[in-house]
Amino acid sequence: MAEGGGFDTFLQPIGGFLDPVFSPLTVFPPYVTIVIMAVILTAIIMFVSRLFVNRKLMIQVKEQMEEIKEKLNAAQKSGNKDEQNKQLSELMKANSSYMRHTMKIMVVSIIVVMLFFPWLSFRYAGVTAVELPFTIPFIEWVSLEWFWWYVIAAFAAGTVMRKAMGSDI
Predict the structure, then answer these.
(1) How does DSSP assign 105-155, residue by residue?
(2) How far are the Cα atoms of 19, 104, 150 from residue 121, in angstroms, in the given order?
(3) CA nearest to 123, candidates 142, 149, 91
(4) Pairing between β-strand 128-136 and β-strand 141-145 as defined by DSSP bridges
């Protein structure tokens, strides 16, 4: 257990509570278990995001933003300040709408991750998940702890899942 009463101390009881549920995964080496959890969490986040986010609307807003940017560039080239201000205002409105939708995805992601991270922290805090065959330049790492290995695995899993589903959101 962590000393000093930090965030780790808060997570320990939650991780201990979840340990009986996820402990069967510990038959694998830490790097495999963490990859499995990253794939599961990424899949859950993508599934729940699809339920809460109107993808068609997000695509429409993205397309609208591209059109507005083109009009803004044309107005800038022509030197028409009134048209620039109008297009900039439209771009801000569209961007605000897009951000509201992406915030839903972020909230879902945070909730899902906060449900599972306590167990990963409980089980793998201070554990080296991967020994690297090289040193990472500038930061001089020769190994990765669970968190950084999770980040890499989740990024890779998300990229593969988005490509497989033909999703750009």
Answers:
(1) HHHHHHHHHHHHHHHHHHHHTT-EEEEEEEEETTTTEEEEEHHHHHHHHHH
(2) 11, 25, 11
(3) 149
(4) antiparallel
Answer whether 0.85 is exceeded by the pTM.
no
Residue 14: half-sphere exposure toward Cβ, Cα within 13 Å: 14
Distance of CA 149 to the CA centre of its chain: 14
Q: How far apart are alpha carbons 117 and 147 in whole angstroms?
A: 9
Question: pLDDT digit of tens for each residue in the chain (169 aa)?
Answer: 344 445 566 667 777 778 888 888 888 999 999 999 999 999 998 888 888 888 888 889 899 999 999 998 988 898 888 888 898 999 999 999 888 888 888 888 888 888 888 888 888 888 888 888 888 888 788 888 889 999 999 999 999 998 998 776 6
